[in-house]
Amino acid sequence: MSFRKRVYGTAERVPSGKVISYSGLAGLAGSLGAARAVGTLMAKNPYPGTSPGRVPCHRVVRSDGSPGGFTGPGGPARKRDLLEKEGIEFICGKIPKRFFVRS
DNA sequence: CACAAGGCGTAGA
DNA sequence: ATCTACGCCTTGT
Predict the structure, then answer these.
(1) How does pLDDT run across A73-82, given as a tens digit for each residue?
(2) Catalytic residue among A29, A38, A57, A95
(3) pTM higher than 0.85 for the full model?
(4) CA dist., res. A12 & res. A50, Å (int)
(5) Could you tell me the distance in Å between the CA of residue A68 and the C1' of nucleotide C13?
Protein backbone atom coordinates (compact mmCIF):
# COMPACT_ATOMS: atom_id res chain seq x y z
CA MET A 1 0.00 0.00 0.00
CA SER A 2 1.58 3.18 -1.14
CA PHE A 3 1.52 6.36 0.86
CA ARG A 4 -0.30 7.97 -1.99
CA LYS A 5 -3.25 5.63 -1.85
CA ARG A 6 -3.57 5.91 1.92
CA VAL A 7 -3.64 9.67 1.67
CA TYR A 8 -6.40 9.68 -0.92
CA GLY A 9 -8.37 7.14 1.07
CA THR A 10 -8.04 9.17 4.24
CA ALA A 11 -8.96 12.36 2.42
CA GLU A 12 -12.13 10.81 1.09
CA ARG A 13 -13.36 10.03 4.56
CA VAL A 14 -13.23 13.66 5.64
CA PRO A 15 -16.89 14.65 6.07
CA SER A 16 -18.43 17.56 4.28
CA GLY A 17 -18.46 20.68 6.41
CA LYS A 18 -15.08 19.86 7.88
CA VAL A 19 -11.47 20.12 6.87
CA ILE A 20 -8.16 18.59 7.83
CA SER A 21 -4.63 19.88 7.78
CA TYR A 22 -1.96 18.56 5.44
CA SER A 23 0.01 17.58 8.47
CA GLY A 24 -2.93 15.84 10.14
CA LEU A 25 -3.76 14.00 6.98
CA ALA A 26 -0.19 12.84 6.67
CA GLY A 27 -0.35 11.49 10.20
CA LEU A 28 -3.64 9.66 9.69
CA ALA A 29 -2.21 8.28 6.47
CA GLY A 30 0.63 6.74 8.41
CA SER A 31 3.53 9.05 7.76
CA LEU A 32 3.66 11.70 10.44
CA GLY A 33 5.44 14.81 9.28
CA ALA A 34 4.87 14.17 5.60
CA ALA A 35 2.74 17.27 5.16
CA ARG A 36 4.87 18.44 2.27
CA ALA A 37 4.44 15.12 0.52
CA VAL A 38 0.68 15.31 1.00
CA GLY A 39 0.64 18.67 -0.67
CA THR A 40 2.51 17.20 -3.61
CA LEU A 41 0.02 14.37 -3.90
CA MET A 42 -2.97 16.66 -3.68
CA ALA A 43 -1.44 18.85 -6.34
CA LYS A 44 -1.51 15.90 -8.71
CA ASN A 45 -4.64 14.27 -7.40
CA PRO A 46 -7.02 12.70 -9.95
CA TYR A 47 -9.69 15.35 -9.70
CA PRO A 48 -11.32 17.33 -6.91
CA GLY A 49 -14.85 16.20 -6.17
CA THR A 50 -17.07 14.73 -3.49
CA SER A 51 -18.18 11.70 -5.47
CA PRO A 52 -16.66 8.30 -4.73
CA GLY A 53 -13.44 7.72 -6.51
CA ARG A 54 -12.56 11.36 -6.42
CA VAL A 55 -10.56 13.22 -3.83
CA PRO A 56 -12.02 16.17 -1.92
CA CYS A 57 -8.66 17.85 -1.87
CA HIS A 58 -10.36 21.17 -1.22
CA ARG A 59 -11.01 19.96 2.32
CA VAL A 60 -7.32 19.81 2.99
CA VAL A 61 -6.01 23.08 4.34
CA ARG A 62 -2.97 24.38 6.15
CA SER A 63 -2.63 23.87 9.87
CA ASP A 64 -2.71 27.60 10.53
CA GLY A 65 -6.16 27.84 9.00
CA SER A 66 -5.08 29.29 5.68
CA PRO A 67 -6.76 27.72 2.65
CA GLY A 68 -3.44 26.71 1.21
CA GLY A 69 -3.09 26.27 -2.50
CA PHE A 70 -5.21 24.61 -5.13
CA THR A 71 -4.07 23.50 -8.57
CA GLY A 72 -7.44 22.13 -9.61
CA PRO A 73 -9.91 23.93 -11.88
CA GLY A 74 -10.65 27.44 -10.69
CA GLY A 75 -7.57 27.71 -8.56
CA PRO A 76 -7.56 28.84 -4.90
CA ALA A 77 -10.71 30.90 -5.49
CA ARG A 78 -12.63 27.76 -6.36
CA LYS A 79 -11.32 26.04 -3.27
CA ARG A 80 -12.60 28.78 -1.01
CA ASP A 81 -15.91 28.71 -2.76
CA LEU A 82 -16.33 24.96 -2.39
CA LEU A 83 -15.51 25.10 1.29
CA GLU A 84 -18.00 27.85 1.95
CA LYS A 85 -20.66 25.86 0.12
CA GLU A 86 -19.98 23.00 2.48
CA GLY A 87 -20.53 25.23 5.45
CA ILE A 88 -16.98 26.19 6.31
CA GLU A 89 -16.62 29.73 7.59
CA PHE A 90 -13.72 31.95 6.66
CA ILE A 91 -12.78 34.33 9.43
CA CYS A 92 -10.40 36.93 8.08
CA GLY A 93 -9.35 34.53 5.35
CA LYS A 94 -8.78 31.70 7.77
CA ILE A 95 -10.67 28.63 8.95
CA PRO A 96 -11.45 28.27 12.69
CA LYS A 97 -10.04 25.17 14.39
CA ARG A 98 -13.50 23.83 15.14
CA PHE A 99 -13.84 22.88 11.48
CA PHE A 100 -10.81 20.67 11.61
CA VAL A 101 -11.16 16.93 11.89
CA ARG A 102 -9.00 16.11 14.81
CA SER A 103 -7.33 12.92 15.67
C1' DC B 1 20.71 5.53 -8.37
C1' DA B 2 20.74 10.97 -7.95
C1' DC B 3 18.23 15.20 -8.35
C1' DA B 4 14.70 18.57 -8.33
C1' DA B 5 10.26 20.09 -7.02
C1' DG B 6 6.01 20.60 -4.40
C1' DG B 7 -1.28 23.09 -2.50
C1' DC B 8 3.64 22.35 4.17
C1' DG B 9 5.32 23.32 9.16
C1' DT B 10 7.80 25.49 12.75
C1' DA B 11 10.99 28.57 14.80
C1' DG B 12 13.23 33.06 15.02
C1' DA B 13 13.80 37.91 13.93
C1' DA C 1 1.31 40.07 13.04
C1' DT C 2 4.52 39.51 8.76
C1' DC C 3 8.71 37.54 6.54
C1' DT C 4 12.82 34.52 5.91
C1' DA C 5 15.27 30.33 6.52
C1' DC C 6 15.57 25.47 7.00
C1' DG C 7 13.62 20.83 7.58
C1' DC C 8 10.40 17.15 6.17
C1' DC C 9 8.49 13.09 3.06
C1' DT C 10 7.17 11.23 -1.39
C1' DT C 11 6.95 11.26 -6.37
C1' DG C 12 8.43 11.74 -11.06
C1' DT C 13 12.29 12.37 -14.43
Answers:
(1) 898 999 999 9
(2) A57
(3) yes
(4) 8
(5) 26
